[in-house]
Amino acid sequence: MQQHEGGECATTNNGAAAADTKADEQTFSKVFKSDFDAKYNIVDIPTPVNAFLSGQFKRSYAYHTIRNRLPVILTRVIDSLTRDKSELIAEFAPNQFVQHAREELKIVIGLISRLKYELQTDKPFQEFTGDEPDHDLWNDFIAELPKEGRTFYQACWMYTECYTYRKLYSFVENSIFIKQFDCFGKIKEQALIGSQDAILSLAKYTRRTENCIEMFAELLKMNLWSNRNDLSDDGRLFNMEILHDVSAMDEYILINNVEDIWICLSEHNSINRQHVDIVLDNAGYELFNDFILAEYIIEKGLAEKVRFHVKAFPWYVSDTTKRDFNHTLEYLSKHSDYIISLIGNKFKQFFDDGKFELAPISYFWTAPHAFHNMRNLEPELYQSLQQSKLIIFKGDLNHRKLLSDVCWESTQDIKVCLGGFLPSNFCTVRTIKSEVISGLAQGVSEDLTRKDPNWMVTGNYGIIQFVDGSREFGY
Ligand SMILES: O=P(O)(O)OC[C@H]1O[C@](O)(CO)[C@@H](O)[C@@H]1O
């Protein structure tokens, strides 16, 4: 078989014909590609500074995600529904409705396939027409988008990605038999079980800790690197080895405001701001890290309560839902390893004692909006965050929503990027997986780009960035 760009071409019995075929195919593949770009108004440039991340910019991670990653994620869901069809029907459908459930499953698979087709052919976002609790939020959002800015490649990447995951879930939530099914449940379960060794080593390592900034800094760094695990991108796997010497990764932490965070938590001046909020990201090992960090904050007297914010439904493959949250506590507390089970039961006791709390579930966290819209769209959530001593935003998507998914100058002051969002002191703990960043020193971005042009999307670098909420410019 002759190899050529994009795969293998068939052999022929005539050398001249083969050469013609190869030339034709190369011409065709060039024409085809430019047709795709021309057809969907894609420009062959990186994301311009101060522009929204968007699939319209071919040399962006947004384009790669829409062109390659999201179709693969949707295909994997279709494959798992097809492969596990009998298991699903047995689990969710009463005997007398087995045939109906089969029919329904076929329809759901068809809807996901159509979503994939719409994604791949840059169709406009479709309204939500089912019983979605956040139905109006989404339809108002879509209606307010400019006509030319409400298709998969032309919209802000954050809108496209959030829409894709929201639509995917709407097919399940509007079904009759598989309403309770989590398309990503199996992947998350496997990841949790697969991180058992890292959970045990972190558990052992954090049993007798000093109440000092050095220990807090180490915990926060381990928490940061646990965010590298990304089930939506196979290329970003967490290297559990780093736990043995987390400071070896310090050069990869581009902003480290641990000292400011420590000072913020060590203050006990205002009596009513004695709780910390953690806006969670991924389930599994990262969630365990969040529990360990919260345990430290409580046991060292840095706050009286830690409130956890989960997602209302399965989101971005591995984000934590209430079910993941409770399942993880059960998994830990019933674990065969004595130390893990001890810690799991301790965390459960913290809930009983009111030291840990699951915050009321808000659909704002699974909305497409940047966080500066929270005050208007979800005032209760904003007001509850205003009572927080410190809000810890975990992960890359939360960071993108803080900064409105804009490709800022890397040296831009983060306070300029927030659009006035500042309910209280907050920090963003995120491995860098998208071309959104602010607050870097002059020249850092250029140096890193020379070393690795993809440094912003590998997850190899991270930030622990603090914003003082006592500033007046917030609203
Ligand atoms: O779990 P995190 O840290 O939000 O990162 C996951 C996300 O990172 C991205 O690659 C960029 O934000 C998304 O496409 C992906 O799903």
Automatic annotation (TrEMBL):
The answer to whether keyword Disulfide bond applies is no
Quote the InterPro entries the UniProt record gives: ARMT-1-like_metal-bd_sf, ARMT1, ARMT1-like_metal-bd
- What cofactor does this one take? Mn(2+); Ni(2+)
Its GO biological process annotations read: DNA damage response; intracellular phosphate ion homeostasis; methylation
Boundaries of every Damage-control phosphatase ARMT1-like metal-binding domain copy: 65-445
Q: Which GO terms describe its molecular function?
A: fructose 6-phosphate aldolase activity; fructose-1-phosphatase activity; metal ion binding; protein-glutamate O-methyltransferase activity; pyrophosphatase activity
User: Where are the stretches annotated Disordered?
Assistant: 1-20
- Which reaction is the catalytic activity of this chain? beta-D-fructose 6-phosphate = dihydroxyacetone + D-glyceraldehyde 3-phosphate; L-glutamyl-[protein] + S-adenosyl-L-methionine = [protein]-L-glutamate 5-O-methyl ester + S-adenosyl-L-homocysteine; beta-D-fructose 1-phosphate + H2O = D-fructose + phosphate
Keywords noted in UniProt: Hydrolase, Manganese, Metal-binding, Methyltransferase, Nickel, Transferase
Q: Which domain of life is it from?
A: Eukaryota
**Per its UniProt record, what Pfam families does this chain match?**
ARMT1-like_dom (PF01937)
In which residue ranges is the amino acid composition biased (Low complexity)? 10-20
Comment field on protein domains: Subfamily III proteins have a conserved RTxK motif about 40-50 residues from the C-terminus; the threonine may be replaced by serine or cysteine.
Q: What does this protein do?
A: Metal-dependent phosphatase that shows phosphatase activity against several substrates, including fructose-1-phosphate and fructose-6-phosphate. Its preference for fructose-1-phosphate, a strong glycating agent that causes DNA damage rather than a canonical yeast metabolite, suggests a damage-control function in hexose phosphate metabolism. Has also been shown to have O-methyltransferase activity that methylates glutamate residues of target proteins to form gamma-glutamyl methyl ester residues. Possibly methylates PCNA, suggesting it is involved in the DNA damage response.
What is the protein's name according to its record? Sugar phosphate phosphatase
Q: Which organism is it from?
A: Drosophila grimshawi
